[in-house]
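TICKET #2291
ISSUE: user wants both folds in one file
ATTACHMENT 1:
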Amino acid sequence: MKNLLLAAGLLTLAAPSLPLFFVPTHLPASIPAADPNTTDEVPQDHKLIIYQMMTRLFGNKVALNKPYGTLAENGCGKFNDITDRALDEIKALGVSHVWYTGVIEHATMTDYAAQGIPADDADVVKGRAGSPYAIKDYYDVAPDLAVVPSNRMVEYEALIRRTHAHGLKVLMDFVPNHVARAYKSDAKPVGVIDLGTTDDKTQAFGPQNNFYYLPGQPFVVPAGYNPLGPLKGPREDGKYAENPAKATGNDVFSAAPSVNDWFETVKLNYGVDYQHGRAAHFSPVPNTWKKMRDILVFWAQKDVDGFRCDMVEMVPVEFWAYVIPELKKVKPGLVFIGEAYNNKEYKTYLEKGHFDYLYDKVGLYDGLRRLMRSEGSTDDLTQVWKQESRGFSSHMLRFLENHDEQRIASKDFATDPLRAVPAMTVTATLASGPVMLYFGQEVGEPGRGSEGFSGEDGRTTIFDYWGVPEHQKWLNQGKCDGGKLSAEQRKLRGFYKRLLTLAGSSDAIRRGKFYELQDANNLGKQYNQRHLYAYLRYTDQQQVLVVVNFSPDKAYQPGLIISPAAFQAMGIPGTAQAVYTYTDLLNGGEPLQALNEVLEPLSAHIYELKRR
């Protein structure tokens, strides 16, 4: 963490002998019809600041961390651990929405027979705690998360109210593509017919079936699957009674999926006949569509504010075109976020599918990851705004961590959590769309340990009972005061707090247009465009310059240039008579006059322009 003091906000300035910005004295008579440094997109203010927490892990105070440990051994966070103090501190980070991950009841090896929920067969469960994406009952919440398991829904409803009382909105998962093999709803409302109840199991595909079948073939547990390593799981015998076998969640139409497949799940049938050219059968409306609509209405009526929808491209876009408008009739302000990875289909899922936001993983995340690992170039960032999300950047959710990705501080990603300083600044300010923080990211959680089903992979487990060590230092046995954090961790958390608060409050960042300054500066001797990235965000009320240095070990003193076309685009004077000050909104300090700033390694600055 050698550069943390600087990244946290202390500036190193050179003697003010050279101007920070070269301001040309003449403006062109006109600007090109298509300026290559910007787009004609009209930004929309969609700057949600989302805090994702793995609910099972967030409030866990136990630090034993025994591989394959039980709930009693390794502990488990509860809804009630998300206290008023915890929510105050989350809100103070600048957060507007909390995504409670893994709330819906899913398959688990933990026995809740006293509540009518026996442990699932270990042969079709991943991890002692189980995957939160192997849903066992769409109408219930995980008993793990309740202090009193029989009172689990009441405790979740109280958390929703508590979250709202702190001025925060609630997001939760919707997992539309697949369910646990042992899916059976015990909590469904009166009159609801369970998934698969009326299916014709003699048909591999039926337009009104909820599942796909392999008639005449029993399910075969993947060879070599060892659910709990050296330990024995409930009913573990290498067998699972399912005849006929159902298709597996990741579109595997075989009775014997591999151990690398999503074998613990079964694929839901939305009217697409995968085995006959993906023929669509959408009229009449498939039964699965109606059941999923009803499930979403159930949760919307519990006053959640939106859904993060899992693997949306594995479900036909026609379903989303049907269900999202239906839900917005029930609750107009609902937010739908789609986990999407095919950048060629983004517009389809936004426009036809009616999603509010989509993941920007294969574009911005992947480009920033390469830069953080000293493997990429800032050209990757230009590619994102200029092509991949051109015209709809306000609808792309940006992040550097989530439950699927490796931790920044892990040896598998970037090792040093400070490498997030320039990257997270770009993540939060490149456009006016939402930004997401994963719990523990703000204190440099490295995701160390082989938790059980999750091996040593740089991720924080979603399958096992576990304590998250660096996060637990902030949790401080439920005090949520950061009492056990190091000085470096407190400074890192302070950076995230300043950045996210600024992103959520700055007029220019929330709704401003974008103008890249790479072309204006790339001929400068001190402007290494592989490491430096600079751009403007601006409205008629505020203009800011963002400049970051991705180099882990080299400082630069570039003498930045704002081009005449950029001044004209901003609608402010760019003549020599127009003199500006530059206040660093991210790091603080006095307004800067004419000076040549040293951009330290792994640094980020957000300057507000003010005319003197």
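ATTACHMENT 2:
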Amino acid sequence: MTFKEQILEGIPEQLPSVKPFEKEINHAPKRKAILTKEEEKLALRNALRYFDKKHHKILIKEFKNELDTYGRIYMYRLRPDYKMYARPIEEYPAKSKQAAAIMLMIQNNLDYAVAQHPHELITYGGNGGVFSNWAQYRLTMKYLAEMNDEQTLVMYSGHPMGLFPSHKNAPRVVVTNGMMIPNYSQPDDWEKFNALGVTQYGQMTAGSYMYIGPQGIVHGTTITVLNGFRKIKKEPKGNLFVTSGLGGMSGAQPKAGNIAGCITVCAEVNPKITQVRLDQGWINEKITNLDELVTRVNKAKANKETISIAYLGNIVDVWEKFDQENIHIDLGSDQTSLHNPWAGGYYPVGLSFEEANDMMANNPEAFKTEVQKTLRRHAKAINKHTAKGTYFFDYGNAFLLEASRAGADVMAKNGVDFKYPSYVQDIMGPMCFDYGFGPFRWVCASGKPEDLAKTDAIACAVLEEIKQNSPEEIQQQMADNIQWIKGAQENKLVVGSQARILYADAEGRAKIAEAFNQAIAKEEIGTVILGRDHHDVSGTDSPYRETSNIYDGSRFTADMAIHNVIGDSFRGATWVSIHNGGGVGWGEVINGGFGMVLDGSKEASTRLKSMLFWDVNNGISRRSWARNEGAIFAIKRAMEIEPNLKVTLPNTVDDAIIDSL
């Protein structure tokens, strides 16, 4: 069968042959057994409902084996035979170009070069799923191939509920992931209900089909590292950044360190993903011996090198060894998946990777104990370095949150706050998000590198023109992004689709998008798909990350994210998504995203202006109401630009009046 025929087939009438388990592929760890015997039966019933009754006797044994062996029913037999990657948009069988664009993005999320565990349909973060099983993938792609521009596909946590009548200006797809009743949003709830096949952890851009490989976080991390060094008034060159994690998102750190110009040491326990990053060129060197690492770092410091070094081993050993050897760390952080601490997101020190995986699956309580002991030891080592002048920040991966729950010494004297800031509190919030700057991205649906080069040039020209008249408050942000986009081709950031990211405000996003749309109309470039990371100005309510610099008490509310996705849906987004969970953990965040297809039409021009303006200024207005000075400046400027925007502004209160009570 051809690729198009396989897509249109959906769930096949005749079962495909059983596929061998490919050990060379990076697979998800076994999930812990959490279902009762009756719940296991329910999980099997739930899985079998995708198939004709004639297949049930064969599949029930197979699915029971998967549940026992892996803790989940992935339906490996249904994995397609064709290569998984983002094809040029014309190669998809589709009645709707918008639907074809979504198919392209789904396949990009599952590309072996992009996805962390492609056979388990997990894009990044250890559990960030596009779908829960391969039947969902096949059925979704079939629906997208069949849909027209007056239908909307409804996605319930990976399950395609079906095509519903709508209209051409409605979203083509509406996605929800993990939207639990609040009392059922603990980590074990995810384990249970995901094993039952009724919900999934969409992370952020995994379950909303907008991941573009580690390039997205490379940019954000580059800005974070640059501004981190600015904060401590040091040049990156010759100075040391220490962190950990080389997986789907964290793998960007060494590349970002190279772009920023510092020495980066990044520890990782998984040998497969470490080798992948080395082969990709995202790290310069791999070292497996601590003494050798010390020698290499001292040499890099002496020569003021720009270099990224992966240490294959546990990060705790690195922090402790550098303390013993008096190696000064300038910037320190951590980007292991501590939103997922008990299922492969963070590994205990003193155990091999294989030993830890075995304990995780077969003795989860002991594994949890070892993880928490390691977190206490990790924090103790960090505290020794910060006492010597290291600037440590939480990278929004729930490191401080889980360390505090483990009883580590990470709390401030007031017993409420953490002793170290999150990077949003100190860096990204006041420097970027409050002013409306966030991770705007686009994908060239033609798949042509020359189209990406043209869009880079268009975006750079737009930014340089805007910068000429930008106020002083945002000149640094503009300059950083112009420098980024000029070096984008040289830094070879593309993994998977022909995609690009840069931080832009509402003005920049709309003007860049309009310039793209005009170029498409003139047939200078092909179709472009717009999107953003959920880690943005408006899309995410996350008290320990995206909204950690909201100090009016509302950082634990989720009104902004919900309003964002509702507003995007009727202002012109091609697809919208809203998730429970994300980079800081299940039950800890609500986050939403969008995708928008530009086809050169007048309708696309109208939609982009309406939606992109709202998508950014919704968040600025919320940050302004929280009394963030940068956001007050930004929303006042936005109201001057757009007469139809009228936002409630806060009145400040003198501290003396409050203190007089």
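RESOLUTION: both attachments delivered.
EXTRA DETAIL ON ATTACHMENT 2: The chain has 22 helices and 17 strands.
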